Amino acid sequence: MQATLTASNFIDLELEYGAHDYHPIPVVLESGKGVYLWDVEGKKYFDFLSAYSAVNQGHCHPRIIAALNKQAENLTLTSRAFHNNKLGSYMKYVTNYFNYERLLPSNTGAEAVEAAIKITRKWGYTVKGIPNDKAEIIVCSQNFHGRTSTIISFSSDLGSKTNFGPHSNGFVTIPYNNIKALESVLKTHHNIAGFLVEPVQGEAGVYTPDRDYIRKVKALCSKYNVLFIADEIQTGIGRTGSLLAVCGSCSCEGHCEQQAKTFTRPDVLILGKAISGGTYPVSAVLCDSKIMDVIQPGQHGSTFGGNPMACSVAMEALEIIRDEKLTQNARRLGELFRLEMQAYIEKSYIVLRVRGRGLLNAIVINDSQKSNTAWNICLKLKEKGLLAKPTHGNIIRFAPPLMINEDQLVECIKIITSTFKLFEP
Ligand SMILES: *Cc1c(COP(=O)(O)O)cnc(C)c1O
Question: What is the per-residue pLDDT across 262-289, written as a single tens digit (0 to 9) for each?
Fold first, then answer.
């Protein structure tokens, strides 16, 4: 029956039977391999979104799919009422990989952020000694940490929060990339348990802070005995040209991960998206035992969290990042991408600037946030065989899978610049 449906049939089905919670680019995808996606009409595309940086390892990576299939034949879910033979070795592997003592497993990014908030608050009460129910967490304006009712309470995006109140208390918002604002809140508020921050603000439009921002954040958090919580759900796992974006934030620019580990190591690290290569919902909170051990049996949990499928898939996905040197590839090709874009921008009216780190980049279109220029550019890119999506009206994010090679990237740069040309006055 499906073979007879056209792209517009599939789109109509979603419109008729689904919640209208997204406004997708009108393309109906059917299969993927590496950097490529194919739609139901057999048209081939370069994927320049990577499912919001979840598919860093490329679509349907054979090693990840093999791990998934093998595990699916043995055991899929036990719940945490019992042990399983994958969870322990997964926890050992991931804590080693990222240099932490403990891991709390969950499924989606938002769940991991929620868990990090709970851990931070409980640490605030039981370790730091904050009076009951007074703990506050500092967050940044223009943040994106997910869609739960607590998380949207501290969003500055009106669309995300209007009419979804009453909102949760206990969050103080400061401007991003502003060390003075952070220090002034830390000086004047005495019940701060943590500072939750994205090392690069992805959803906001790929805002990269000053090089020394994260290092200064870390120093201030230590000085005021406040947990530094990094949401690396989008930026982590090689995306920005270092294993974690916080590593690329000190002056070493990601070249000395050892040094970065001490100067910019978050107290609480939140991972999701690419930890499974976009194959399966996997997320995690990582921290040392003096923080994690505030959580005792019965105080947090998830039926699917830490299931053997998630563990098997995520271990393989992380192994691939190392084996295929995807972090290094992201760093090298990201530089090439921004260099070529910058060269185009010098003589462009329609493109204002390019910014980003590694293969997480954005182009700012010279039109208002309300205009549909960026949307129309994305439709044209789609026609030419490249999929990207605007964010905040006039920004287009370009984030291909990290296994893209130089020839492919050069081909994509040609598609992108020749599309821009069509929109020049
Ligand atoms: C995607 C994202 C989330 C939310 O992850 P979900 O899996 O969609 O719940 C949280 N924080 C950041 C920085 C993200 O990019």
Answer: 678 999 999 999 999 999 999 999 999 9
Last residue of one domain, picked from the residues 279, 297, 323: 323
Contact 40, 6 (CB under 8 A): yes
- Give the Å distance between the CA of 233 and the centre of ligand 1: 6
Same domain, 230 and 81: yes
pTM: 0.97
Give the three-state DSSP class for 385: coil
The CB of 32 under 6 Å from ligand 1? The reply is: no
Vertex 398: Cα angle to 175 and 15 (nearest 5): 95
Give yes or no for residue 356 CB within 6 A of ligand 1.
no
Ligand 1 atom nearest 54 alpha carbon: 1
150 CB-near residues (< 8 Å, 6+ apart) = 114, 117, 168
Domain count, the chain: 2
User: Is 378 found in the same domain as 234?
Assistant: no
Please write the tens of the pLDDT for every residue from 353-412. 999 999 999 999 999 999 999 999 999 999 999 999 999 889 999 999 999 999 999 999
Tell me the CA–centroid distance for residue 294 and ligand 1, in Å: 24
